[in-house]
Design brief:
Elements lengths: L2 H27 L2 H8 L1 H9 L13 H30 L11 H34 L9 H18 L2 H10 L5 H6 L1 H15 L5 H24 L2 H10 L1
Helix pairs in contact: 1-4, 2-4, 3-5, 4-5, 4-6, 5-6, 7-10, 9-10
């Protein structure tokens, strides 16, 4: 295809992905109240552990409505993620060798699985530990936590970890295009680990070392896994495998 045809293909894929997100939003907005009841469980548990009132507040009449809109959108994004990722795969598939196109299902499973695993890891481990530390640190004060601020913090942690867990997928595409290689990633392992801990210190909502390590540990493991991914999809290795086939 020509450059303009590639742009037209990209536009079509983006429109389809946005339509899927819109349908997911409409479906999830109906259940937004129930979804938020699961979202607020970590803060309610943290407040109860420190013998504080577990009821959240809002400061503006429009805040609950806006909050449910945001919850519906993010939940819709999660629901539509398989279709969105398929559109991404369909866009890059013409640049793959014929035998590589059969990996569409493993790609879908790993992409969605990693994103959900990152969100679940944040929901079950990172976020409760961070909230318990923060609530305990400010126990001499009376908290007045608004639903808007809590939702923003929740989505930052959960969606952020979901995206962080997509590191192998990002490396897959960069290696596919020849931007990075497994050798380059291995040679820069020490600097990458340092960068990961700096990033973890920035994105973690607390200042303690334990929560920073909770963020950094899976990122280091994913980086090592990504080195293997980069080696498997390196252009030279793919071309040699295609010639043998």
């Amino acid at each position: 295809m020509s450059f303009l045809q590639h742009l037209e293909e990209l536009r079509m894929r983006i429109i389809r992905a946005l339509m899927a997100v819109g349908i997911g939003f409409c479906a999830c907005w109906y259940y937004a109240e129930r979804i938020f009841s699961y979202m607020q469980r970590p803060i309610m548990t943290a407040l109860a552990n420190h013998h504080l009132d577990t009821k959240l507040v809002y400061l503006s009449p429009t805040e609950p409505f806006n909050m449910y809109l945001k919850v519906g959108f993010i939940a819709g994004l999660f629901v539509a993620s398989p279709f969105v990722l398929y559109q991404l795969w369909a866009f890059v598939a013409p640049g793959l060798y014929r035998d590589e196109k059969r990996y569409v299902m493993p790609f879908m499973v790993f992409s969605v699985g990693l994103f959900v695993a990152g969100g679940f890891f944040g929901y079950r481990i990172v976020y409760p530990a961070a909230l318990d530390f923060l609530i305990g640190y400010g126990q001499q004060f009376s908290p007045m936590i608004t639903i808007g601020e809590y939702t923003d913090l929740f989505l930052t942690i959960i969606v952020g970890l979901g995206l962080i867990f997509e590191m192998p997928i990002l490396v897959f595409f960069l290696s596919l295009m020849g931007v990075i290689s497994a050798g380059w990633m291995w040679r820069n392992l020490r600097y990458s680990i340092l960068a990961i801990f700096i990033l973890a210190a920035i994105v973690t909502p607390t200042t303690d070392i334990m929560n920073m390590c909770l963020f950094a540990a899976p990122m280091v493991i994913l980086y090592i896994v990504s080195i293997l991914v980069a080696w498997l999809v390196s252009p030279a290795r793919r071309k040699a495998a295609a010639n043998r086939a």
